[in-house]
Amino acid sequence: MALPDALQRYLSRHRGHRAEALWGLALSGPAMLLMLVLLIGPLLAITLLSFSDWQLGMPAMGWVGVDNYRQLAADDVFWQAVRNTAVYVLVVMVGAVGLGLLLALLIEGCTRGKAIYRTLFFLPVMASLVAMTIVWEFLLHPEFGLINQLLMMVGGEPRSWLRDEDWALAALCVIGIWHQAGFNMVLFMAGLTAVPRTLYEAADIDGIPRGFTRFRLITWPLLGPVTLFVVVMTAINAFQVFDTVQILTQGGPSHTTEVLLLTLYREGFEFFRTGYAAAMTVVFLGAVMLITLLKTRFLEKRVHYS
Amino acid sequence: MQMTSLSSRSTAHQHVDRVVTQSARMAVDWPLMLGTLLRHALLISLALVMLLPFVWMLLTSFKPADEIFTNQLRWLPENWALVDNYTKALTESSLLGYMGNGALVVIAIFVIQVVVSVPAAYALAKLDFPGRKGFFAAVLLCLMVPTQAVAIPWYLELHYLGLLDGFWSLVLPFSLSVFGIFLMRQFFLGIPDELIDAARMDGMSEWRIVWCVVFPNAIPAVVSFGIFSVVAHWNDYFWPLIVLNSQEFYTPTLGVVDFRNAESGTDYGALMAAATLVVVPLMAAFLLAQRRFIEGISMSGMK
């Protein structure tokens, strides 16, 4: 109802724009409709469902207020998932951003072979993570895995990494870093090429030594906005960790690799406790949006697009 | 190196003092060369570590079982079981069928996404219509929403439409890409208005302008977006896992996990062969057009 009214008002204000307005609506109509059905509607639905006790297949639903959230706050497994996800995000963030930056700096300093290195380090980003997860499982195999065999060669102690309460999450972090570092490398390389050559020439004239000093004085400050951007991107991606956990550990051993999306998946699609899973989704979505908004705020202040 | 030696030779018989500075510079170059050497050594060892999973996957897919289940570390197979393993991967699971499903799904998603988002992006970039600002604000908001956050409502919608566990359950939820709209809009903003006005003077309708004038000019952006979309959906696991039950609709990711569950750790040679087959199509495409791929994928960082 609102749209025809708005159209009427709009058309009386802009005479002669009638055709353009109609075309605009016609061309964006399908997208708007799909947006309503696939995004806006579902977001409203998930919020509403989070206040209900509904389970898929049940004929009626009752309103339970904030009961789901209260239950969530008292759920040990949920808090375990929150903690594990936080640890995972933090470790992968530091690891993948650090490795990405290191690779970008090393490659940018090369006079030849840049393209080859970039391609090689980007391969893990491209490859199907699910297929590679199965390869990682074999690499980490307690008896016949390459990692243990290499470890024993240097006198290390073999472990059953994915069944070890102290190591399972760490193993998942390593896979996460392996998967994301190349992506960050590419973003950092783009940032590095944007650093004006003249600054380095000026540094030559001023006799600033190459290496770390130069990095600290010139490269790092100019790379600041890119770094922030990469950190946030990595955090958001890491926050959505699911494939590796679902395939390798299923949250075990004894919930040490329980992460948010896995818990959500189980509640929503294995136990079909829709209302409860909806509450969890709202929390998950809130966290993702918070990180994204932080990024937008910071970046608008700090990045100078020229 | 060649340049400096040439120039030093040409100046040598003219000015002795310049030769002295030249050779002094050559002497300073030694640490630089050492640095380059170290740099490459470090990069190559890092590359070896990063590529180890790929290398091991390939090598294992060539080995017979008795060489896999051994404590002896040996890189290359003694007896090659390449044909055996790959035949098993292809016959014991319908991997080729799953890959066909995957290809159909990613193509269908991409085509629908283009058909929906290109006109909308054009309208947002070049036309004035009521609700434009609101629509664009909604696009920006929806950019932040990850798939997993709307998975439950999608599931319910498909359930009530009776479309769960089928081809369309994999395609329909992704028919709208707000990222696609956002990206295309940015690109269309750069197309000069004169071009569009000229087309209008020629009596073209807006619909024809979208597909005959704007779209051909936006091919680079469409290709980048296509790579982004295809890679994302070929590799997707979360959504197919939720909606599919029947093997006949499986995508490659579900297929390879299913194969692994069925084998339950008894036949790593064939399993690694299956993983290789799933990874190879995108990998080959990537190696053929790496610049485009890197652009397309890193573009997702623009969100």
Q: What would you say this structure looks like, in words?
A:
- The complex is a heterodimer of chains A (306) and B (303).
- Chain A has 306 residues and is mainly alpha-helical.
- The two termini of chain A are 44 Å apart.
- In chain A, helix 10 runs antiparallel to helix 13 and helix 12 runs antiparallel to helix 13.
- The model of chain A has no long low-confidence stretch (mean pLDDT 88).
- Chain B is mainly α and 303 residues long.
- Chain B contains 16 helices and no strands.
- In chain B, helix 4 crosses helix 15.
Rg of Cα set of chain A? 25 Å
Roughly how many Å apart are the termini of chain B?
A: 44 Å
Biggest interface and residues each:
A-B, 99 and 89 residues
Low-pLDDT regions of chain A: none
Sketch the topology of chain A as an H/E string, one letter per element: HHHHHHHHHHHHH
E-strand count of chain B: 0
Which class do the helix and strand fractions of chain A yield? mainly alpha
Q: Kindly state the mean pLDDT of chain A as a whole number?
A: 88
Distance between the termini of chain A: 44 Å
Low-confidence stretches of chain B: 1-17
Oligomer: heterodimer
Q: Which range does the strand content of chain B fall in?
A: under 5%
Instruction: Determine the strand fraction of chain A and express it as a percent band.
Output: under 5%
Series of secondary-structure elements of chain B, N-terminal to C-terminal: HHHHHHHHHHHHHHHH
CA-based gyration radius of chain B? 28 Å
List the SSEs and their pairings.
The complex is a heterodimer of chains A (306) and B (303).
Chain A: H1 2-13, H2 18-49, H3 67-73, H4 76-108, H5 114-126, H6 129-139, H7 146-153, H8 168-193, H9 197-206, H10 212-239, H11 243-248, H12 260-270, H13 274-302
Chain B: H1 2-12, H2 16-61, H3 65-68, H4 82-92, H5 95-126, H6 132-142, H7 151-161, H8 167-171, H9 178-189, H10 193-201, H11 206-217, H12 219-234, H13 238-243, H14 252-263, H15 268-288, H16 290-298
Helix pairs in contact in B: 1-2, 2-15, 4-15, 5-9, 5-12, 5-14, 6-9, 10-11, 12-16, 14-15, 15-16
